[in-house]
Amino acid sequence: MRARFLPCRFWAVALLFVCTGFLFSCQTGKAPEGSHLRQQTISLEDIRTRLIDRQKGLSDLKSFIRTTVLTKDHKRSLRQALLVRGGDALRVDTLSLLGQSLGVYIFNDQKVPSLRSVFYDTRRNRVFMGIEVREMLGRTLGIKLNLEEYIGVFAGNIPRLEALRMTGGSLNPERTAYLLEGFDPEDKSRMEIEIDAFTLLPQKVKRTLQDGKVIHIQWQDYQLVADREFPHRIDIEFPAEEAGLTLIFTDPVLNAGIPGESFELPFGNKNTSLSRN
């Protein structure tokens, strides 16, 4: 009677099971790795959708902030109060050491164009509109800046995310962050976005404008506020201007329901002078 030999494939499979069982028995104490970290590719649309859903969860924000403005010529520190409503309304009060308002900037996209952006000089009881608003902001901050473009950024959101077309993405070599790339077809800007791979919280953005200028944004010091992780430090840098600003938040309040009157100025006061340009 001739001996029958089992095929080599059988012995290879058996050896694989033995080795696998040995490895698992030696590594029972190792924490499991998140499934998304084992992927070589990621779903850009899934991450984008989650980020958009998160941003929609914040309807308004109010907080005291310490704003530090740094340019090649000077460093300025301001105590301010910040109000944000969605992506269409912003109010920034610059305060004295005693907490009195020195100047108020308001942007309200629901207003007619001529009244969307205003600056109220409380010391002179004078309201500025038009091109003078940016000039007054420049005097206050020490840097010329269109604050309305950063409403979402102040709330911890990626600017113009819903308009962005995702063009690429990967995990960083340390497998701790998603590195995403996108293009904005409306303003022709490009963005490189860094997202924490574990929490999906935005960390950094590099935005390259159509004219080649670059803006760096960074969100840091996330802390739990109510049921939401909120960044208590935001850095915005403008390398071409050799300037930047840092916002440090104190006791932020989220989704409290800020009334519309908070974004109004006393235009009806007959003693308030107006300046238009």
Write up what this structure looks like.
By secondary structure, the chain is α+β, with helices and mostly antiparallel strands. It has one domain (44-266): outer membrane lipoprotein receptor (LolB), chain A (Clam). The chain has 4 helices and 14 strands. It has helices at 8-26, 44-56, 131-141, 151-154; strands spanning 60-70, 75-85, 89-95, 101-108, 117-121, 126-129, 165-171, 177-183, 190-196, 202-208, 214-225, 228-238, 243-254, 273-275. A 14-stranded mixed sheet has the order 7-8-9-10-11-12-13-1-2-3-4-5-6-14. The longest helix is centred in the first third of the chain and has 19 residues, at 8-26.
CATH superfamily: Lipoprotein localisation LolA/LolB/LppX
Q: Kindly report the CATH topology.
A: outer membrane lipoprotein receptor (LolB), chain A
Helix content: 10-25%
> How much of the polypeptide forms β-strand, as a percent range?
35-45%
3D shape: globular
CATH class: Mainly Beta
- Order of SSEs, N→C? HHEEEEEEHHEEEEEEEE
Radius of gyration: 26 Å
Count of separate structural domains: 1
Taking all residues together, what is the mean pLDDT? 82
Structural class: alpha+beta
Keywords:
alpha+beta, outer membrane lipoprotein receptor (LolB), chain A, 14-stranded mixed β-sheet, 4 helices, globular
How would you summarize what this structure contains?
Helices cover 17% and strands 40% of the residues.
List the helices and strands and how they pair.
Layout (H helix, E strand, L loop, with lengths): L7 H19 L17 H13 L3 E11 L4 E11 L3 E7 L5 E8 L8 E5 L4 E4 L1 H11 L9 H4 L10 E7 L5 E7 L6 E7 L5 E7 L5 E12 L2 E11 L4 E12 L18 E3 L2
Parallel strand pairs: 6-14
Antiparallel strand pairs: 1-2, 1-13, 2-3, 3-4, 4-5, 5-6, 7-8, 8-9, 9-10, 10-11, 11-12, 12-13
Protein name: DUF4292 domain-containing protein
Organism: hydrothermal vent metagenome
InterPro entries: DUF4292 (IPR025634)
